[in-house]
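Sanity check. The docking grid for S-adenosylmethionine depends on where the pocket ends up, so I'm generating a full predicted complex first rather than guessing from homology. Inputs follow.
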Amino acid sequence: MDIKKTQDEINRLDQIQAWNHNFELPNGLTTSRAEQISHGKNLVKYERISKIFDNLNINDMKVLDMGCNEGFFSIKMEERGADVTGIDIDSRRIEKAKFIKDLIRPDSSIQYKNIDIYSDKVKELDEFDLCLCLGFIHRIPDPFTAISILASKADIIIFEWKALKFGSHDESFAFFSTKDIDEKDFYGTEYWLLSYKALERILTRSGFKNFYRVDDPSQRRAILVAGKVDHEIFSNKDKISHRNKIRTLLSHSKRFVTVIWKIITGKINA
Ligand SMILES: C[S@@+](CC[C@H](N)C(=O)[O-])C[C@H]1O[C@@H](n2cnc3c(N)ncnc32)[C@H](O)[C@@H]1O
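Predicted complex below; grid placement will be based on this.
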């Protein structure tokens, strides 16, 4: 595809649904428009999870990317040598993922499928060594059913999600989002915000027994590696250093100062 046709297709897909990620394409083009603000999100997320990927040794694994969106993480998994299947309920996202794959990795064998996790089509899928479940469980109405389905498909699952931001993560809490249905992006609607413990309890009922919490409060997003099987990542977890202690300390200090300021200015009651 020549540059003009590629740009026209980027624009057409953008009109249908704004790009989520700013992909840098081989011919110097990029997907995102200047006014979009989420360019760095996937890069930050990938950076946070990279050490887990290193430890799991993705090479030759069969990986399911659940809620693959435009395929950013599917491509990263294939770059690490995995055999990848990406699934998403949104046909517009799958169309974009295929477009990007053809441009960035023309020889790729990633399979993208337009499937709802709650549909019978998921049962027809193969089994996987690893499932990525990133930015997903707070976007679905029934996490228990979805997780039971995923549990039947993979022995290890990596979760990254918008977790409960208050209370103890050692209590099994779920909080229903105060946001309304997302009218522009229905499949981006927010539902349940789960604590670590709530997610672990759900997983335990589906046969998972090993958990590794990557607990970096400075990022405000939780990451959990869950396993039905034993793997050295669960026994060596203390050796995997993710926490940027200075950043965590600064984040806590900032929140502390913000709360004090709100009390002083009367925005919240002490
Ligand atoms: C916030 S995005 C996360 C995308 C990507 N995994 C990431 O971490 O950046 C959530 C994705 O889940 C998809 N999704 C929502 N409900 C779904 C469902 N029932 N079945 C499959 N995919 C779904 C959405 O279309 C969207 O692409």
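Relevant for the grid: The chain has a mean pLDDT of 89.
Also worth noting: The pocket of S-adenosylmethionine is lined by residues 42, 67-69, 73, 87-90, 93, 116-118, 134-136, 139-140, 187-188 (CB under 6 Å).
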